Amino acid sequence: LFKMNPIYTIMNPIKIPLGRIDKSINKAFIEDCKKHPNQDSSCKDGYVKACFNPKFMTHQNLHTVQEIQKKYIEPYLLNSLIDLYTDSFSNRIIVEKYKKNIEIQSMWLVEFDHKTHFKLHTHMSLPNMYSFSWYLKCEGNRTVVFMSDNKEYEISVSEGDLLFFPGWLPHRAEGANSICCSGNLKIEVE
Asked: 168, 167, 2, 190: which is closest to 83 by C-alpha?
C-alpha cells in the first residue's frame, strides 16, 4: 500500500521524504473527516493560525476520533510515517534497527478553493517533533514551498502523496480544489 518516492534534500542534513498512500481510501477518509468540523469560536472568519479562507476545516484533534484511528491512522498512516521518518536520515540502515514510538499530537483536514492559502509558518519547534501533509485530492500537481537559509525549495506533490518534515521548518502552500490532511507528531527512538 505504501510506495516510496524521492527524498528531497533542501538543507544538509535536512531531508524531506515523500511517500505515497493508496488513493483507494481517500474518498471514504474525506467523508468521515467531514463529520468533524472546526467549531472553535476563537477561529475568526473560518481560519486557524496560518490558514486563510478554507472552504472546510476539521477540528485539530481529528486523531482522537476512534473511527478515524481504527479505519485510517492505524492501518495506513502510522507505518507510513515511521518509514518516512527512517528515510529522513542520511543512513537509513542505522535508524531502521531501533524501535520507534510515534504519537500523533494534532491532526486536521483542510479543503482548499481558489481563495484558500497557508502563509509561511512553522509547526512544532522541538527536535523530536515532526509534521506531515497527506494530499487526498489534487487537481494535477500542487506545490509546497519550504524556506531554508533564505532560499525557497519547491516540492511538487500529487494526489496520494505524503510529505514528512521537521515541524520547525517554515513552509507555505496554496491549492485550489484540493484537500489535505496535516498533523504534528512526536517520535521517540528506543
From this structure: 2
What's the pLDDT tens digit per position in 70-96? Answer: 999 999 999 999 999 998 887 778 788
- pTM (predicted TM-score): 0.86
Angle at the Cα of 61 from the Cα atoms of 59 and 65, rounded to 5 degrees? 105
Distance CA 24, CA 78 (A): 17
The neighbouring-strand residues paired with 147 are: 152
Residue 59 grid coordinates: 477540528
Q: Are 138 and 157 in contact (CB under 8 A)?
A: yes
Beta carbons of 41 and 171 less than 8 angstroms apart? no
The verdict on whether omega for the bond into residue 170 sits within 30 degrees of 0, i.e. cis, is no
